[in-house]
Write a structure and sequence with these properties.
The chain has 635 residues and is of the alpha/beta class. The chain is globular. The termini are far apart.
Length: 635
């Protein structure tokens, strides 16, 4: 039966890959014009937007773009926060035949100029006055004919750039028959047409414009939906919380509703993602590990501050859940009706109310990707009854070619190749993962050298080193370009070490240093919620986040957390010294991407004095400290 279902899904997927995004939107609107396309959060709660309304918005904006001189194949930049207006601008651009260039709303004027120049964009949409202020300092943006502000409440002012235009002034009249116009546009489109340039995060060099076609975006969407097959049968709420220039968010908002029953939910902004998720109560949620860590911290804090009786109930429920999880993860699980009944009671009376605090009480599919998930964090979610799974994907693949398919998998692997014959995954002799499938990019815009390096013989060379376990599960070792080589010739994966360090509830992030050095050190970012409260408890002199970096008492206690990680690592991988950072790692200071991928070069430059200080002492003394034989003095 399962084989038959997979065969049917493959046939449906093949049919979808012969379509285009405007064609699928027209088909959905024609079949179910009053169905909910997406929801927006307002002061009065959620507001439904139907496919008929959605198509009117898309066609009106697309026609206005044509009237302004944008033609098929032209590039259009969109820079803004998470809003339905961003999505509408994206689909309108694609529908009328142009190419969307997604720009992170945290980009600097210099980065914005780079995207405009590299893509050859002829028009820029900005989400609000915030992004307009960035564009006002970007010469390439000021040289465009128009910068259109999507925020309907924005009005021109004396300080605004001369080429800035309100969306109300840009839009033409509404259409009496928008579906006909959309159908005409769809007739001019081909599945192989380029629809998007999604720039890479630039963690290992200048961002590259990843070329995507209709087939690529839809192929990636189909791959991601394999993890939640019920989305084809019943409404599936999706919280749109990642920046829409991120390929995962774009696929969730733009493509999922066209081929499934997924309904994107837009909150107020990406900064209020916790409110968005809590209000959405999503059925399907995908996020990097850091988001799950933050949500877990919220729940743990609530438990720690609850009444003694509640904490006692929680501990009892957790002990029962540990037995259940052990059974679930056993090779030959046995069914114990009494234990199952206890587990159900724990879920309903203890864990589900806690999950409701963060909006996860109705979650059906939870996926984490983009970085390794700390084992303790993954286990905690599973003990709470959330069947959290890991997956792997890149901007260059759009969707996940590898994911944990089986339920209640332990942390440590990214899963196995997805059960879709359209996708193939293999491992090269050097351990690099190679992929080919409908989501794989056509190459990099204006960069034939990078294209030739990444795409060889029909395979995408991902640059990621993996190991295939005996059970067929893939373990991600590291980016080949991020492997550290010490002065002693040791080859070390910083990601694995950082993951061990992040297993501490007090450590939000770590950056391992050691390229060309005798030993490894780390820059440590303390968690701003659980970690900061803990720091204030151990050192009352700490009043601000920056104070933590100078606290000798805190550093002694963080050493205990580092020792725990070191005990799980080989000797050459152990951290010999560390520094607590005086600030959070944020996209605004240029050291991480909006999805918190570390920019290692930027980190090395920004914190060069802190790094240098960790290599000033003698190696012998540092080794003694790492073994816990000395108390580290504050530097």
């Amino acid at each position: 039966m399962k084989h038959g279902t997979e065969t049917l899904a493959a046939a449906q997927g093949a049919e979808i890959l012969q379509q285009t995004i405007p064609g699928l939107l027209a088909r959905k609107c024609r079949a179910r014009p009053e169905a909910v396309a997406y929801r927006t959060l307002s002061a009065d709660g959620w507001r439904d937007v139907t496919f008929a309304e959605y198509v009117q918005k898309v066609v009106r904006l697309g026609a206005s773009m044509q009237a302004s001189g944008v033609g098929r194949g032209d590039r259009v930049c969109i820079m803004g926060d998470v809003t339905p207006e961003w999505m509408i601008a994206d689909i309108a651009t694609i529908a009328m035949g142009a190419i969307t260039v997604g720009v992170y709303f945290t980009s600097s004027p210099e980065e914005l100029d780079y995207y405009i120049e590299d893509s050859g964009a002829c028009l820029l949409f900005v989400g609000s006055a915030t992004e307009l202020a960035i564009a006002a300092r970007a010469p390439k943006a000021l040289a465009l004919n128009q910068i259109v502000v999507l925020d309907p409440s924005w009005r021109p002012s004396a300080e605004a750039p001369a080429n800035a235009l309100a969306i109300g002034d840009f839009l033409g009249a509404a259409f009496s028959a928008p579906l006909e116009m959309l159908t005409d546009w769809a007739a001019q489109a081909a599945p192989s047409d380029i629809v998007s340039l999604g720039y890479t995060s630039g963690t290992t060099g200048k961002p590259k414009g990843v070329i995507n076609t209709h087939v690529n975006l839809l192929g990636g969407a189909l791959a991601n939906l394999i993890s939640t097959p019920e989305a084809y049968q019943r409404e599936t709420r999706v919280a749109v919380h990642l920046p829409l220039s991120h390929i995962v968010a774009r696929v969730q908002s733009a493509c999922f509703p066209l081929i499934s029953e997924c309904v994107p939910h837009f909150g107020r902004s990406s900064a209020s993602y916790e409110e968005t998720v809590r209000q959405t109560r999503p059925h399907y949620f995908v996020a990097p590990p850091r988001f799950f860590q933050r949500f877990a911290s919220t729940i743990v804090n609530h438990v720690n501050e609850s009444a003694p009786s509640e904490r006692a109930n929680y501990r009892l429920a957790l002990s029962i859940s540990r037995r259940v999880l052990k059974e679930r993860q056993a090779r030959t699980p046995r069914h114990d009706p009494f234990l199952a009944a206890l587990s159900q009671a724990c879920q309903e009376q203890v864990f589900r109310p806690l999950l409701a605090l963060v909006g996860f009480d109705q979650i059906r599919t939870a996926i984490t990707a983009s970085a390794p998930m700390p084992a303790d964090v993954m286990t905690l979610w599973q003990l709470w009854g959330v069947n959290l799974k890991e997956a792997y994907g890149q901007t260059e693949t759009v969707g996940s070619n590898i994911a944990q398919g089986e339920d209640w998998q332990p942390a440590g692997t990214i899963g196995a190749p997805i059960p879709d014959p359209a996708w193939e995954t293999r491992v090269a002799e050097n351990g690099e993962m190679l992929v080919r499938g409908p989501g794989v990019t056509q190459g990099y815009w204006n960069n034939p050298e990078a294209t030739a390096e990444a795409l060889r013989d029909g395979w995408l060379h991902t640059g990621d080193i993996v190991e295939v376990q005996k059970n067929g599960q893939y373990k991600l070792i590291d980016r080949s370009k991020e492997i550290i080589k010490t002065i002693n010739g040791k080859t070390i994966s910083p990601t694995q070490i950082e993951n061990e360090l992040r297993g501490s509830p007090y450590i939000a992030e770590a950056a391992v240093i050691g390229e060309g050095r005798k030993y490894l050190t780390a820059l440590i970012e303390i968690d701003p919620t659980v970690g900061f409260r803990w720091a204030q408890e151990v050192d009352p002199a700490i009043a601000s986040y920056a104070d933590m970096s100078a606290s000798a008492r805190l550093k002694e206690l963080v050493w205990a957390e580092v020792h725990k990680a070191n005990r799980r690592l080989a000797r050459a991988e152990q951290i010999k010294d560390f520094t607590i950072l005086p600030e959070e790692l944020t996209p605004e200071i240029g050291v991480v991407t909006p999805t918190r991928k570390k920019k290692r070069r930027a980190i090395a430059l920004r914190y060069a004095p802190l790094i240098a200080a960790m290599y000033d002492d003698s190696e012998t003394e540092l080794l003694e400290r790492a073994l816990g034989k000395k108390t580290l003095k504050s530097k």
